[in-house]
Design a protein that fits this description.
The protein starts with a strand and ends with a helix. It has a two-stranded antiparallel sheet. The longest helix is centred in the C-terminal third of the chain and has 37 residues. It has one domain. It is mainly α. The protein contains eight helices and two strands, in the order ββαααααααα. β1 and β2 form a beta hairpin.
Length: about 230
């Protein structure tokens, strides 16, 4: 979907999803700067909405990682905002959601993959973090490694499959029923886009929580064993 090159940078072909992704990133940066450049003690409507959204994301993160929410929130919050906008951009005529292409969702999944290890190593230290791949027995090492790969692939395919199928369903319904049902389709697209963004961010948060809390889990298992 829109994978023909728009232009090339040397041997690298830049496709429509990449250009759309860059446009989303630029728009989010500009809008974030405009929305936060004049914050006040007595907030206006825009500031109230922003504070409400950030507060909701903060509560969601704290439910999973109460002790390190301030460290994880910037990444998870940015991920949520980007995926929501990327999912919703498909409702604009002439544009397609970049998350409807596997290359974009794969890049997001790889980003989550590296962030999980970054937060885990930052929390426990490199040696302690790597040891959890040998728990409870070194024979589990290949299974742990396989799990890392499969869940990253699943994360990419899940988002890609849902957004691509949603856009295809909208196109098929419009072809069959014409433009008599645009509002229900628009509502369906918005709801599904929000749900898929939430699920993607929550899965990333759960994976990070598993990496950060592995030490606590091992210590808890040791205490239960000795008890």
């Amino acid at each position: 979907m829109g994978l023909n090159p728009v232009f090339t940078i040397g041997p690298i072909a830049v496709t429509v999803p990449v250009v759309t992704t860059w446009g989303i990133m630029l728009a989010l940066v500009v809008l974030s700067w405009l929305a936060t450049r004049n914050l006040h003690q007595e907030p206006g409507p825009v500031q109230v909405i922003l504070e409400g959204l950030i507060g909701a994301m903060d509560r969601a993160v704290r439910e999973v990682l109460p002790n390190v929410a301030t460290q994880v929130l910037p990444f998870i919050g940015t991920l949520w905002v980007f995926v929501v906008v990327a999912n919703l951009v498909g409702i604009i005529p002439g544009l397609h959601s970049p998350t409807g292409t596997l290359s974009t969702t794969a890049a997001l999944a790889v980003l989550v993959f590296f962030s999980v290890h970054w937060f885990g190593i930052r929390s426990e230290g490199l040696a302690a973090y790597l040891k959890h791949y040998l728990a409870p027995n070194p024979i589990m090492l290949p299974f742990h490694l396989m799990s890392e790969v499969t869940r990253t692939v699943a994360l990419a395919i899940r988002l890609f499959g849902n957004i691509m199928s949603l856009e295809m369903a909208v196109v098929l319904v419009l072809l069959v029923a014409g433009f008599l049902v645009p509002v229900p389709l628009l509502i369906l697209h918005i709801i599904e886009a929000l749900i898929q963004a939430y699920i993607f961010g929550m899965l990333a948060l759960i994976y990070i929580a598993g990496a950060i809390q592995s030490r606590q889990l091992r210590q808890s298992e040791k205490r239960n064993h000795h008890a």
